[in-house]
């Protein structure tokens, strides 16, 4: 693989908010992008499209077989998954089972790179510090975060067992623009998200690696060093929205609670719930 060259990439969650932006950004950078999602092909999508459930290993295998018939695939960008809190069972299916199905198909078809949308909620219960390193211990704030930790562990296993290059991007707040005081620190702009995925796709031999998926925010406190080492150089800064965001903020107690931990609202008591849904309710 000639890094930096045109790559053939399968993007899961291609119809989602991050997927839509990343697919079009990768096409703009000259890549051949195939989309995979639960929903039918999105209007304006130019590449191959697969409507399938990533949690179904047979369906995922069929997608890879379909792609293989028209040439080799260079990488997977795995963005599929529910973006919010639910039962532990649902979270494990959405984040761990989907990742496993994709990794198994990658091994079968000789695809050696995956870029994964992990989340800051994998370490969301970590109290605020001066600088948050990626080496901090897994400290999820929700079952969503637990599933992201487990998915990262699975990537690490497949990197060690099968030599797969696996980059877990712990994404902050992916939004057109920051909407809360917390997001002034955690914002990931659309353009930086594309820069990040492009860097993760093309970094030479990353092995298993973790980075924080945030922009270069003046108020940021998550270590951008590991991302920079892989070639992710964010260019946006939430600070240009600070005045309007702070002026619109009307609940200082909520803002203080959200500032206490990496995961913001997910790390507050309002997210407490039993792990499992019971038939009796
Ligand atoms: C995430 O990982 C979630 O998917 C999203 O709903 C937000 O909570 C975001 O993180 C965030 O921390 O702002």
Helix/strand structural class? alpha/beta
| Contiguous uncertain segments of 5+ residues | none
Bound molecules: D-galactaro-1,5-lactone
Number of DSSP E strands: 9
Q: What's the arrangement of strands in the largest beta sheet?
A: 3-2-1-4-5-6-9
**Largest sheet entry:** 7 strands, parallel
Distance N terminus to C terminus? 52 Å
Under the CATH scheme, the architecture is: 3-Layer(aba) Sandwich
Q: Please tally the helical runs, counting DSSP H or I stretches of 4 or more residues.
A: 9
Question: What is the assembly state of the chains in this entry?
Answer: single chain
Overall description:
This protein is α/β, with parallel strands linked by helices. The chain has one domain: NAD(P)-binding Rossmann-like Domain (Rossmann fold), CATH 3.40.50.720. It has helices spanning 17-28, 57-68, 88-109, 143-162, 183-186, 190-202, 225-229, 242-248, 252-259; strands at 8-12, 32-37, 49-51, 75-78, 113-119, 165-171, 173-174, 187-188, 208-213. The strands form two sheets. It has a seven-stranded parallel β-sheet, with helices on both faces. Strand 4 (75-78), helix 3 (88-109) and strand 5 (113-119) form a beta-alpha-beta unit. Helix 1 (17-28) packs across helix 6. The longest helix is centred in the middle third of the chain and has 22 residues, at 88-109. The protein is globular and about 55 Å long. Residues 83-84, 119-121, 171-173, 186, 264, 266 line the site of D-galactaro-1,5-lactone.
């Amino acid at each position: 693989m000639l890094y930096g060259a045109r790559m053939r990439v399968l993007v899961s969650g291609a119809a989602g908010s991050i997927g839509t932006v990343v697919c079009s950004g990768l096409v703009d950078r000259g890549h051949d992008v195939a989309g995979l999602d639960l929903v039918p092909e999105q209007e304006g999508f130019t590449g191959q499209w697969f409507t399938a459930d990533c949690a179904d290993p047979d369906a995922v295998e069929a997608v890879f077989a379909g792609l293989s018939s028209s040439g080799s695939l260079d990488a997977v960008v795995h963005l599929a998954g529910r973006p919010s809190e639910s039962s532990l069972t649902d979270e494990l299916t959405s984040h761990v089972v989907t990742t496993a199905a994709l990794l198994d198909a990658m091994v079968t078809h000789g695809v050696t790179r995956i870029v994964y949308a992990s989340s800051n909620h994998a370490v969301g219960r970590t109290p605020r510090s001066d600088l948050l390193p990626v080496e901090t211990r897994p400290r999820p704030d929700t079952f969503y975060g637990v599933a992201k930790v487990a998915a990262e562990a699975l990537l690490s296993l497949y990197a060690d067992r099968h030599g797969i290059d696996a980059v877990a991007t712990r994404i902050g707040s992916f939004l057109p623009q920051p909407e809360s005081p917390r997001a002034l620190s955690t914002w990931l702009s659309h353009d930086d998200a594309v820069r990040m995925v492009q860097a993760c796709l093309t970094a030479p031999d990353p092995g298993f690696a973790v980075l924080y998926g945030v922009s270069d925010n003046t108020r940021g406190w998550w270590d951008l060093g590991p991302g920079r080492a892989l070639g992710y150089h964010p260019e946006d800064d939430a600070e240009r929205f600070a005045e309007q965001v702070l002026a619109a903020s009307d609940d200082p107690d909520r803002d203080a609670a959200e500032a206490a931990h990496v995961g913001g609202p997910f790390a507050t008591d309002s997210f407490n719930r039993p792990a499992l849904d019971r038939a009796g309710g």
